[in-house]
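ping. complex inputs:
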Amino acid sequence: MKKKVASVSFDWPKGFPNSPLDVESFLIGSVVTNVSRRAKVLSIDLDTGYTLVIHLKMTGQLVFRSPNDNFGAGHPNGSLVGDLPDKSTRVTIKFSDNSTLYFNDQRKFGWIRLLPTTEVPKLDFFKKLGPEPLPNDFTSSIFASRLERRRNSNIKSVLLDQTVVAGVGNIYADESLWGAKINPNTLVRNLSKPKMNNLFTQLRYVLNLAIEKGGSTNSNYVNIDGKRGSYMDFARVFRREGLACPRCQTTIQKTRVAGRGTHFCPNCQRLVK
DNA sequence: CACTTGACCTGTCCGC
DNA sequence: TGCGGACAGGTCAAGT
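pong. complex structure:
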C-alpha cells in the first residue's frame, strides 16, 4: 500500500544531523517509492527526490505498526517491543493510512538523515564502502584481494572494516573466524590462501544463517515488526565464554581484539605466525 | 600513509 | 539498598 507521510515528530535534534532544518515540511506529503539496504545502512526513497538514510548502530530499532496491530509483550505474537512510542522513541513518522514508523534508539548512536537521493551515494561512507558479501559476483578471490589491502592488521579488525567488506559486525566476525578455525589475532599476511577461502565460505554461511534466523538479538535488535532474531541461539562462540566449544569441547575464551569483545576457541583457533 | 584508540550514549550488571 | 565503574557494539575523529 502506498505510504504517504502525514506527520513527523522527533524529540531529539541529533536524530537528523546534517539534514535540512525544516525536516517536517520536507517530509509531509511525500510518498515512499523504495526501501533498500547497503551494508548496515537503510534507505527509504521518497517521491520528492529525497531519501531517509538510517543507521541503527547498536541499539536502534525501526518498527512499523498499523492501527490494528497488537504485537505487545503479552501478546501471543509478542515482540521485544511493546506499546509505542516508548521512552527510547526518537522519531515518529505517521502515514496517511494511520500506520506509523517508529525509530527507537536507547543509546542515541543511531541516526536518520534526510538527503537528496542523488547525494546518498556521495556520502563518504558509501564511497569508501566495500562490496556486499552475499551476491554471487562476490568471489573468494575478490575477498582475498580485499583482505590483502590490510596485510599488517589482524583479521578480526579487517573483517570489521567496512571498506574491505560491507556489513560485517562483531558477532558475525567472531562466528565466521570460529567456522574457519582462524585466530582473531592472526595477521592477514600470515593467512594462507586456503584459510582465506575457508573464511570466505564461513562468512557467507554465517551471514545467510543469521538472515534465516531473523538476525541476532543480543540486546535491542528487532525486525520491522518489533520481533527479536534468534541467531544468538545458534551462535557457536559469540557470548559463549566459559562454555564448551561445539567442535572440540575446549572452553571458549573472551579477549579484546581491535577494541572489541572477541570470542574464540583457543584449541581450534590457534595463532599462526 | 597505515593502523589504533577514544568518543559518542544509556542501561545493565558486578563488586563493595 | 546505593553507588561507582566496566561494559556493550558501529563508526568517525583524533592520535601514534
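The longest helix of chain A spans residues 193-212.
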